[in-house]
Write a structure and sequence with these properties.
The chain is largely without helices or strands. It is built from 2 helices and 2 strands; from the N terminus they run ααββ. A two-stranded antiparallel sheet has the order 1-2. The protein starts with a helix and ends in a 9-residue tail after the last strand. It binds zinc ion. Zinc ion (ZN) binds near residues 86, 109, 112 and 114. The site of zinc ion (ZN) has 8 residues, from loops.
């Protein structure tokens, strides 16, 4: 089973996606230009952050209290990040990481490379 499929198998994941990502009702997201040498991953991002476990050690559901909403169209900058995907990221707060040069600029999550500008 791939990492992406594991994330989507979390309890409540499918319901969460459908309730928070009515992509056909939202204007498309158009990212700005990236700095030279950087590219986007093409994989769709479903949410940001990995829910923890409850007091009994059971996996918590994916919902608006346990993960962060990600606007449809936001993607990950190619690179080697601590988390393989935003759905597994453990960075929930703190400063972003700014990538910039004369060609472009983007603010990313240092835990997973997600465009969070
Ligand atoms: Zn992240």
């Amino acid at each position: 089973m791939s990492t992406a499929n594991s994330a989507l198998a979390l309890p409540g994941a499918q319901e969460h996606i459908h309730s928070l990502l009515p992509a056909d009702q939202l204007p498309p997201y158009e990212p700005g230009p990236l700095p030279q040498g950087y590219t986007w991953r093409e994989e769709k991002v479903y949410w940001h952050g990995h829910p923890g476990t409850d007091d009994q050690g059971n996996q918590e559901e994916v919902n608006s209290f346990t993960v962060d909403f990600v606007y449809p169209g936001r993607r990950v900058v190619q690179g080697t990040w601590p988390a393989s995907r935003p759905e597994f990221c453990e960075v929930f707060s703190g400063p972003g990481q700014r990538l910039a040069d004369s060609q472009g600029e983007v603010l990313i999550c240092p835990g997973c490379g997600l465009d969070c500008g």
